[in-house]
Design brief:
- This protein is mainly α.
- The chain has one domain.
- It is 94% helix and 0% strand.
- It has two helices and no strands.
- The longest helix has 34 residues.
- The chain is elongated and about 50 Å long.
């Protein structure tokens, strides 16, 4: 479950990063400064959840 949620977060926030670059940065730089840390934090959370999911998946295969 963690792996799926992590991969989903990475996909959605990577898409949001592209949207941030294409739209927010060009239109309103002040809004872009507010959204950029949110995107980075969310990508970090997604990467950590993916890491935990992969680690758990490997541990479940070794115990069988």
């Amino acid at each position: 479950m963690l792996l799926v949620i992590g991969v989903y977060m990475l996909f959605t926030w990577t898409t949001r990063l592209y949207t941030w670059y294409a739209n927010d940065l060009q239109a309103n730089p002040y809004a872009a400064l507010i959204h950029f840390p949110i995107v980075l934090i969310s990508l970090g959370i997604g990467a950590y959840l993916t890491y935990l999911g992969v680690k758990g998946r490997r541990a479940s295969r070794q115990s069988i």
